[in-house]
Amino acid sequence: MWVEVFVTAFTLQLLALPGEKGQLVIAGLATTYNPYLVVAGAATAFGGWTVLEILLGEALRGALPVAYLDAATAGLFVLFAVWILYDGSAMDGTSAEPNPGEAATTDGGTSPVSNWEGYLSSFSAMAVAEFGDKTQLITISLAATYGANPAIWVGEMAAIVPVSTLTAVTFARTTQYLNMTLIRRVAAAMFLVFAGDIASTYLLGISVLPF
User: Fold this and answer.
1) Burial of residue 164 (number of CB atoms within 10 Å: 0-12, 13-18, 19+)
2) Which of 28, 58, 85, 142 has a CA-to-CA distance to 68 between 20 and 30 Å?
3) Which residues face 106 on adjacent strands?
4) Residue 129: pLDDT band with limits 50, 70, 90
5) Phi and psi torsions of 34, nearest 5°
6) Partners of 110 in the beta sheet?
7) Closest CA to 70 of 144, 140, 135
8) Which InterPro entries would you find in this protein's record (predicted)?
9) Distance from CA of residue 144 to its chain's centroid?
10) Is 159 exposed, middle or buried (0-12, 13-18, 19+ CB in 10 A)?
């Protein structure tokens, strides 16, 4: 069960990350601050939020029948698919916004900033950016299904930390080479597959996914 929950949490969080606003915040802050401290601040905020979300999901677990929770989870997966595609089309249709790091630069380049400033800026920004995001809904849904299983926290952190680190270190250099529209569409399609698998389990008695 632990491995199953870990893989599920890891996979769902990984699919939710493309185009997620928290990753854009990390990318912006990393242009001014030490990228590893930006990731540390973001991970601290995300880890704290995840604990609260797991406790909320655990409280909901005993309050509703399992079938209702599964139906709600399937509905959330469909919502995530639409959400990802909508966010992608909105970002594709807008012009580039000012870089969050511009306020800390001068004609001579980036001004020196303290390590704590980078950490605290990332922590505070992510604490706000994560509120009401689809990553939170995923955590609550998982906890409502599996209970307050530590594998949820470990699986989600195993996805968010490496991806955030990669974003912070390489995002500015690789954006022009990535087809973000394709990535969002693949992620949206996977969420629809997860929703379809839940529906298939109840309607046909068959699960098409290995986890």
Assistant:
1) buried
2) 85
3) 109
4) low
5) -60, 120
6) 105
7) 144
8) GDT1-like (IPR001727)
9) 18
10) buried
How big is the chain, counted in residues? 211
pLDDT over 70 for what percent of the chain?
68
And the tokens for 172? Answer: 């500015």
Mean pLDDT of 134-163: 87
The residue type at 206: I
Phi, then psi, of 109 in degrees rounded to 5:
115, -165
User: Which residue type is seen at 123?
Assistant: F
CA angle (47 as vertex; 39, 15 as ends), nearest 5 = 75
Distances (CA, A) of 90 to 86, 87, 192: 6, 5, 20
How would DSSP label each residue in the chain?
-HHHHHHHHHHHHHHH-TT-HHHHHHHHHTTTS-HHHHHHHHHHHHHHHHHHHHHHHHHHHTTS-HHHHHHHHHHHHHHHHHHHHHHHHHHHTSPPPPPGGGGGEETTEEPP--HHHHHHHHHHHHHHHTTT-HHHHHHHHHHHHH-S-HHHHHHHHHHHHHHHHHHHHHHHHHGGG--HHHHHHHHHHHHHHHHHHHHHHHHTS---S--
- C-alpha distances in Å from residue 28, one per residue of 48, 101, 118, 119: 22, 6, 11, 13
Tokens of residue 24, six digits: 């854009």
pLDDT greater than 90 at residue 44: yes
